[in-house]
Design brief:
With about 550 residues, the chain is mainly alpha-helical. It has helices spanning about 10-25, 30-40, 45-60, 75-85, 90-105, 115, 120-140, 155-165, 170-185, 185-200, 205-215, 220-235, 240-250, 255-265, 270-285, 290-300, 310-315, 355-365, 370-375, 385-395, 405-410, 415-430, 440-450, 455-470, 475-495, 500-510, 515-545. It folds into 3 domains: about 5-115, Alpha Horseshoe (Serine Threonine Protein Phosphatase 5, Tetratricopeptide repeat), CATH 1.25.40; about 125-315, Alpha Horseshoe (Serine Threonine Protein Phosphatase 5, Tetratricopeptide repeat); about 355-545, no CATH class.
């Protein structure tokens, strides 16, 4: 389904005017195009539906031939066909198309029309079809739906109410209605419907829906009881084990949670939900990054998981270097201009090109979901040549004219420079990737930078990220990080070195770091962590928003 093209940028009123003119002249095809355009912009506007009704009369076959379904059909045409199907006595087919439109473009109120909210629709389509529609809506909607978007699903909730009124003892319908109600914030209603569904037809899914509703209502003990009953119905559904474990962990019962997830893994060691949950809970237990690295390896090796998981991002969120950079606290050592390859050396590179600066501004951010995601996002710098990348380090571009840029400029301008350094070094990881790692340009340049002054931590983070995404380089990177941390720790004994704690956190994010260096890193990280934590959290709270990586596409043709 296509959302539209540039030639569909007319406002709804202009689309309507053109549709009327085309209809009056007998040009039904163009009238249909403009009606579809108007529907895409104002799906509930009565005037649009009036013109659509006229088209249905003029076009024959109820107007359906004017809105055929093709491989890529404009969303407005799909919605028009849905309404015409309903008018032709085929409302169930029309509902299926509206749900498809909702999944394709969830920000619009595609179903907010009288025929969907009419009580008689529930009687016409029957409880099984109504339940299927509600399941499709739930699959298309986030869980929970953000409050600002809930109005676009109000018509589906009305359909659920009408269907439950007509079929008050249909277990599947009550369960799916509960799932939708919970997503849109109607938690009390969700509990009531799910409870009725379990009483009418006890089942695994009924108990799961009830457990989710109770959990959303804050009734955790009852929610866990319902989920345990779901396991009794079907001991082989390991996703429920993971739900129980996650709920227990969220409420401070970590050991019991781990017991449930171990039970699931004993049944199937490769079940994706259990694996993700197990690594997350083990990391919560001991804070050892090896659990997260193992999870990243699993994600890389299993690209076709049953659904997307957020466990890795959840564990990395807000943690130094795992999910965000740290503010500058001074260099790791005094400036030394003898490092030939360092961008801060005696012969500074030329300024970067305007294109390099533009790309950097597009993706540089003080936070990322996790190191592999940061690596993937930095692919936007992959085609920059080495002089441009070094030029970005030596001549950081101005902060972007965005909300993020304004906050960085006013609160901590040095943090933007850190962003530039981090993302430029991540870009270096994509430089000449055909070269074997040991003798590669990217490794050589990053090592030179890591032994420099200004961008040392950024370069080390890029090396650590390389170890996350490529197991074959882990021993090499762990050795480099261990050497740097040992040297910094020795220097810190002689004079204060504020950046040592940041490097320690970076070491703790390094795959396959040896136990002695890990112990040293924990000691250094804990020495100043308490004094810095409040300032760091307060600053980044102002900066960070839900992160959506931007990967620049090819230039417009």
């Amino acid at each position: 389904m296509a959302e539209g093209t540039d030639d569909r940028a007319l406002p709804a009123t202009e689309e309507l005017a053109r549709a009327r003119r085309a209809l009056d002249s007998g040009d039904l095809a163009h009238a249909a195009d403009h009606v579809a355009g108007a529907l895409a912009r104002a799906p509930t506007l009565p005037e649009v539906h009036e013109i659509l009704a006229r088209l249905a009369v003029a076009g024959g076959d109820g107007g359906l031939d004017l809105f055929p379904l093709q491989h890529h059909t404009f969303v407005g045409a799909v919605v028009a066909r849905a309404h015409l199907l309903a008018a032709a006595g085929r409302p169930a087919e029309g509902l299926d198309l509206l749900v498809a439109a909702t999944a394709n473009a969830p920000g619009a109120d595609w179903a907010g029309v009288p025929w969907v909210t009419a009580p008689e629709l529930a009687e016409r389509i029957g409880p099984d079809r109504a339940a299927r529609v509600l399941m499709q809506v739930c699959a298309a909607a986030p869980d929970p739906v953000p409050p600002a978007d809930r109005a676009t699903l109000a018509a589906y909730l009305t359909l659920a109410r009408n269907a439950v009124t007509v079929h008050p003892e249909h277990g599947l319908l009550l369960g799916t209605a509960s799932a939708l109600a919970r997503r849109v914030g109607e938690v009390t209603l969700a509990v009531r419907w799910a409870s009725r569904g379990v009483r009418a037809a006890p089942s695994k899914m009924g108990e799961v829906w009830l457990g989710y509703a109770l959990r959303s209502a804050g009734r955790t003990r009852e929610a866990l009881a319902a989920l345990r009953r779901a396991v009794d119905h079907d001991p082989d559904d390991l996703a429920v084990y993971a739900d129980i474990a996650g709920t227990l962990a969220d409420h401070g019962q970590l050991q019991e949670a781990l017991g449930w997830i171990e039970r699931a893994l004993a049944r199937n060691p490769s079940f994706d939900c259990a694996v993700h949950t197990a690594h997350r809970l083990r990391f919560q237990r001991d804070g050892d990054v090896r659990h997260l690295v193992a999870l990243a390896d699993y994600v890389r090796d299993h690209p076709d998981d049953s659904h997307e998981h957020g466990d890795l991002a959840e564990c990395c969120r807000g943690r130094p270097w795992l999910g965000q950079l740290t503010p500058a606290r001074g260099p790791l050592r005094q400036r030394n201009t003898a490092t030939a390859g360092d961008a801060s050396g005696p012969v500074a590179p030329a300024p970067p090109s305007a294109e390099a600066a533009r790309r950097l501004r597009q993706l540089a951010h003080p936070a990322w979901p996790h190191p592999p995601a940061a690596y993937d996002t930095a692919v936007g710098l992959a085609t920059l040549d080495l002089p441009d990348l070094l030029g970005l380090l030596a001549h950081p571009p101005e902060t972007p004219q965005t909300a993020l840029g304004r906050v960085l400029s006013s609160q901590d301008p040095a943090l933007w420079v850190r962003c530039v350094q981090v993302w430029t070094c991540l870009g270096l990881l994509h430089h000449r990737t055909d070269e074997p790692w040991a003798d590669s340009t990217r490794r050589r340049v990053l090592l030179e930078l890591a032994h420099g002054v200004e961008a040392a931590e950024a370069a080390l983070f890029a090396l650590v990220t390389a170890a996350w995404v490529d197991p074959s380089v882990r021993s090499d990177v762990a050795r480099v990080v261990a050497e740097r941390l040992t040297a910094v720790a020795e220097a810190a004994r002689e004079r204060p070195l504020p950046a040592a704690a940041s490097l320690a956190h970076l070491a703790l994010a390094t795959p396959d770091l040896d136990p002695d260096t890990t112990a040293l890193a924990r000691s250094l990280a804990g020495a100043t962590a308490g004094r810095r934590r409040h300032r760091l959290r307060a600053l980044l709270h102002r900066l960070l928003r839900p992160f959506r990586p931007h990967i620049p596409g090819p230039p417009p043709s």
